[in-house]
């Protein structure tokens, strides 16, 4: 491997981060309403959402990528490889984040809801000042873990031509006729990208815990 090969691999880092960040943003935004529908008191809606979540989680990520890119992308809508990958991983992230949010919500005791209503707080104040800080604190560690897993899963996007880290590692392997070293470099890049996420998660959780404790 040469310095040029290392630079070629490094050019895949922004696309890997963009793919991971875009998919997680979609999942984080859509996950909350999905969680609310999942916890609906209207039983047919609740059962339907449970079935949809189970169905989406049952299919492997690579199948969702292929369905959106080779299915929808080549017929109904013109999707670029990157957009198809973000949409596929965003769908998966949405249902997984819904379950993470639900875990944070059910961890809050019923007494807190009753106390908030007894104080005559508005629904917005209950969510913003009482429930959200506690729910976020509980959901933060699994969310960070999911982001790291999502970053690793983003390598699947290389199968449809997204030039992220794994794709560029394969290109360098073919150009240099080396198998181990290029993918070792790619693996080191994934580790280097994952460490700040874990550190930020621990820092944010510590600050949220101190805020809730006050």
UniProtKB/TrEMBL annotation:
Compartment(s): Cell inner membrane; Cell membrane
Transmembrane stretches, start-end: 12-35, 47-70, 76-95, 180-199
Gene3D superfamilies for this protein: MetI-like
Keywords, ordered alphabetically: Amino-acid transport, Cell membrane, Membrane, Transmembrane, Transmembrane helix, Transport
Residues annotated as domain ABC transmembrane type-1: 13-201
Membrane topology: Multi-pass membrane protein
Family stated for the protein in its record: Belongs to the binding-protein-dependent transport system permease family. HisMQ subfamily.
Protein name, per record: Amino acid ABC transporter permease
């Amino acid at each position: 491997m040469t310095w040029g090969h290392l630079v070629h691999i490094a050019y895949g880092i922004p696309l890997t981060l963009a793919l991971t960040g875009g998919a997680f943003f979609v999942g984080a935004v859509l996950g909350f309403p999905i969680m609310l529908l999942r916890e609906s008191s209207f039983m047919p809606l609740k059962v339907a959402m449970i079935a949809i979540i189970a169905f989406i989680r049952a299919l492997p990520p690579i199948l969702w990528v292929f369905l959106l890119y080779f299915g929808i992308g080549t017929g109904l809508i013109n999707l670029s490889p990157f957009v198809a990958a973000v949409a596929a991983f965003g769908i998966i992230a949405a249902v997984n984040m819904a379950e993470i949010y639900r875990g944070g919500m059910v961890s809050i005791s019923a007494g807190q809801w009753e106390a908030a209503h007894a104080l005559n707080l508005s629904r917005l104040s209950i969510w913003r000042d009482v429930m959200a800080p506690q729910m976020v604190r509980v959901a933060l560690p699994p969310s960070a873990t999911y982001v790291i897993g999502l970053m690793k899963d983003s390598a699947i996007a290389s199968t449809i031509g997204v030039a992220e880290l794994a794709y560029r590692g394969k290109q360098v392997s073919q150009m240099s006729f080396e198998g181990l070293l290029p993918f070792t470099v790619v693996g080191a890049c994934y580790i280097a990208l994952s460490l700040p996420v874990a550190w930020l998660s621990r820092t944010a959780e510590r600050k949220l815990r101190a805020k809730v404790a006050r």
